[in-house]
Amino acid sequence: MAHATDTKSGTRRDFLLLATGAAGAVAAGSIVVPLISQLAPDQQTIAAGAPVDVDLAPIAEGQAIKIFWRGKPIFVRHRTKKEIDEALAVDVATLRDPQTDQQRTKAGHEPILVVFGNCTHLGCIPLGTAPGEPKGDFDGWFCPCHGSHYDSSGRIRKGPAPLNLPVPPYAFTSDTKIKIG
Questions:
Q1: Which has the closest alpha carbon to 158: 169, 147, 166?
Q2: Average pLDDT of the residues in 105-118
């Protein structure tokens, strides 16, 4: 009978070890899973840095729209032939931040200009995107805060801003769609 008691005792011991191990694993999982989940960025943060698709078809020639990417305004403008010709005619050597129009647009898609919509002086949002807003002296954008004027290529032409409106990373996914980011 001693032998039966040892077997019974061994079975209890095995059960207790398994139960204790299982309880420990559950406890460890209940601590580790929330900790790892907390370290991951939330959906809003992920969406803020995600690429943005823009359909260009509704943007008429001469019109511009403002969208947001990574919490910053982006201007997408469908330039007229007159605006493109004006931008191409500028002597780049006279510019404060010299860049050709070709450096600021994609080859084969010159009518579309995509730039960040923050004045490079103090970060204000220039006017010239909505209908009826002043476009400044160079058919581009005008920052009413301190008087910076940008041309139709987003280049600084007058005022205190030191640099052109930056061009964000973007690519054409078709003739009428771009992906920013």
A1: 147
A2: 95
